[in-house]
From TrEMBL:
Positions of transmembrane segments: 21-38, 76-97, 149-171, 207-228, 234-260, 272-293, 305-338
Pfam families xref list: AI-2E_transport
Record-stated family: Belongs to the autoinducer-2 exporter (AI-2E) (TC 2.A.86) family.
GO cellular component: membrane
Major site of localization recorded for this protein: membrane
The entry's keywords: Membrane, Transmembrane, Transmembrane helix
Cross-referenced InterPro entries: AI-2E-like
Localization per Swiss-Prot or TrEMBL: Membrane
Protein name according to UniProt: Uncharacterized protein
PANTHER family reported in the protein's UniProt record: TRANSMEMBRANE PROTEIN, TRANSMEMBRANE PROTEIN 245
Length: 369
């Protein structure tokens, strides 16, 4: 039996260390192929993770505390996510992309507004050719970043189906899912708990908090433009909703030009009304809501949000408005955890070294005696 074990060991040309290295390399290569294959659908997994964090308190309260049926609760969460969050967001995106493409193909209206703005301010913004080129480039960029049923209905259905399937698994087999995370993530238990709290805080701030603020601002902007007679007010309200995710700039990019254009057309009352409502009501409601929601849902620095949007939109499209800041916030948390654990490791190593030195000194003293 011993000779058989020896032959088994000597039949390979690799040492145990080389075998471990090759195993890790094989895992990395296969993982790379998997990631490359799922590259177009990675937003589905991020979306499922975000929805899981959002609805986890509801699921815990109904299943673990009230003892409701797990499958029924999970199904209810999925239907609520689909019809209250996903589909409305999709409808807004489709409305936005449709109007952007329209304006990119019919530039005369935009050129007329720019000319009026130049006459009002006395400054020449740019040439008409540049404006036409920018509008066409903007339409092309929006087509790439926003979902389009005409351009990729199958991809859209796959992403939504994959996200809902992943969400169903995360809730229906939650114990296995969480056990797998704890087993494979290279963090201590306290660190995992801290990361979970930070993830919940970031998702609440970037998704729930920012989503509520953006929705309120978008509705207020659309209603304001409608009241003061701006055409296509619903479209510009939708634009304001998405722009409201951008810190500082946000909705002023919509209502400020609208007010100036009304002034340039001689509609002084409407123009001044739009500017006053935008500056006093819409801007202040943004600040007020952020302060109120920060206490309940967590707060994220505007610079982190802005940088996250810049990083996330090119990768995840319109979903990058919420996924990008969440990933960047989590990266910062991981860096903080790494720095703290590194510091703790240094302290422990210094203490161990001091203990060894003391024991060596005590042993030397006993030897001398």
């Amino acid at each position: 039996m011993a000779s058989t074990d020896t032959n088994t060991v000597t039949n390979t040309i690799y040492t145990p260390k080389q075998q471990r290295i090759l195993l890790i390399a094989s895992l990395l290569v296969l993982g790379g192929f998997i990631i490359a294959g799922l590259q177009g659908y990675v937003s589905a997994f991020f979306g499922a993770g975000i929805l899981y964090v959002i609805f986890r308190p509801v699921f815990y309260g109904l299943v673990y505390k009230k003892k409701w049926n797990r499958t029924w609760v999970t199904s209810g969460i999925m239907f609520f996510s689909l019809f209250v969050i996903i589909l409305p967001f999709l409808v807004l995106s489709l409305l936005l992309i449709d109007r952007i493409q329209y304006y990119s193909q019919h530039t005369d209206q935009i050129l007329g507004l720019v000319k009026q703005a130049e006459q009002l301010t006395g400054f020449k913004i740019t040439s008409q050719q540049n404006i036409q080129r920018m509008l066409q480039q903007g339409g092309t960029f929006a087509s790439r970043q926003l979902p389009s049923l005409a351009g990729g209905a199958l991809d859209f259905l796959v992403i939504i189906g994959l996200m809902l399937f992943t969400l169903f698994y995360m809730f229906s087999d939650e114990e296995t899912f969480l056990s797998g995370l704890r087993k494979h993530l290279p963090f201590k238990r306290d660190t995992l708990r801290e990361l979970g709290d930070q993830l919940k805080n970031n998702v609440n701030a970037n998704v729930l908090g920012q989503g509520i603020v953006s929705f309120v601002q978008g509705v207020l902007t659309g209603l304001t433009l409608m009241v003061f007679g701006v055409p296509d007010a619903a479209f510009w309200g939708t634009v304001a909703f998405f722009l409201a995710f951008i810190p500082v700039l946000g909705t002023p990019l919509v209502w400020a030009p609208a007010g100036l254009i009304q002034l340039s057309q001689g509609n002084t009352t409407d123009g001044v009304g739009i500017l006053l409502v935008g500056a006093i009501v819409i801007t202040n409601i943004d600040n007020l809501l952020r302060i109120m929601l920060a206490k309940r849902m967590g707060d994220v620095h505007p610079l982190v949000t802005l940088a996250g949007i810049v990083i996330g939109v090119p990768i995840f499209g319109i979903l990058g408005l919420v996924i990008g800041p969440t990933i960047l916030s989590f990266f910062i948390v991981l860096m903080q955890v790494f720095a703290r654990e590194n510091q703790e490791s240094r302290i422990e190593a210094a203490q161990d070294e001091a203990t060894v030195r003391e024991r060596a000194e005590e042993k030397a003293e006993r030897t001398v005696r």
